[in-house]
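Hey, can you fold this one?
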Amino acid sequence: MEVRIRLQKVGKSANKHYNYRVVAIGRNVARQGRHLEILGHYDPSKRPAVVSINREKLDRWVKRGAQMSDTVRSLLKVK
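Sure. Predicted structure:
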């Protein structure tokens, strides 16, 4: 199974400010589908935005061949 590391939308507020999880998930699974592992979270509604990613878990998945989405890759550069 091909694995991607991408954002998964969670929560919802009246102002449509969402929080996101950084997850390892199968490539063909829907965005809200079942994830394999939670790697961290991202909260863009805070100023400055909060990015918390467990690098050990992330590195373990990348070594197994998981591909990061462009958004997750850019979040890592900001962190």
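The CA atoms of residues 24 and 37 lie 5 Å apart. Let me know if you want another pass with a different chain boundary.
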